[in-house]
Amino acid sequence: GYGQFLLDPQSLEYALAHPEALQDELLRAQVFDSLWESVREAQLDPRRYIELALAWLPRERDDTTATLLLARLSRAYLRYSGAQARSAFAPAVEALLLSGLSGSGSASRRIAYLRALVETARSSAARARLRALYAGTQAIEGVPLRSRDRFRIASALLALGEPDALRLIADEAAREAGSEAQRYAFAAAAANPEPAAKAAYFRRFLTDQTLPESWIEEALVPFNVPEHEAATLPFLEQALQALPRLKRERRIFFVNGWLAAFLDGQSSPAALATVERFLASAELEPDLRLKVLEALDALARTVRIRGKFAG
Description:
With 311 residues, the protein is mainly alpha-helical.
């Protein structure tokens, strides 16, 4: 079974101030889980969890706990924090991730740091490091960069508006033969911020019968990157209206990924209102309604947390 066990206020404050007191690895992981649940319940300011992660990650011994902390750091930083907080934390977050690429931990931990950096990089220094990794002029010890990682780097640069990112994607597709590389290239280019490119991708998602389903699934997250939520919001209602047809025509779990990508790519009250209006008016089969409600939870929490702590 599953349960939610939140700390009392005094224990919460002590855990935040003295994580070194949690010497037992299982207990420490449980306490960090509880603190994260307090963030998700809008009881703990996400900035305080970011501060905890920044301070503790270099000292964490357990790879599983470190990976979870990295994932939560990224979410609290990118999704739960307002622009002012992100600007304030950016130097420390990027410094931590850059140092983690050459840290003394395991190869799996360095991979986790790399993927977090790809997701959160904004500064010129971080972008330059990603470019160097893509080009092979720098390497991560014990972590050979796979083609898929290079596609992810190029896609992240594209999402940020780097002018030559589409060329990097094309270069990587030309270097790697096979259908997998073509799928990754298609997905990476979905991060194109141009409105016409967004419209073309969305149209293909719904109407191109020759487009493999796996290509769409791979492209949904790059299409819905947080930086582009204003550009993808106009597609949200259409994405919801397409659910009955997608259920009929696609494989069983496709709808789950579709909903998760389109709703998790949003953070605004306007997006939440769009989904709530759809639920109030649409005649959905019970299983589809439940899937929408499940996916809506993440968006509703994001709006509530940002409304309380990000202004």
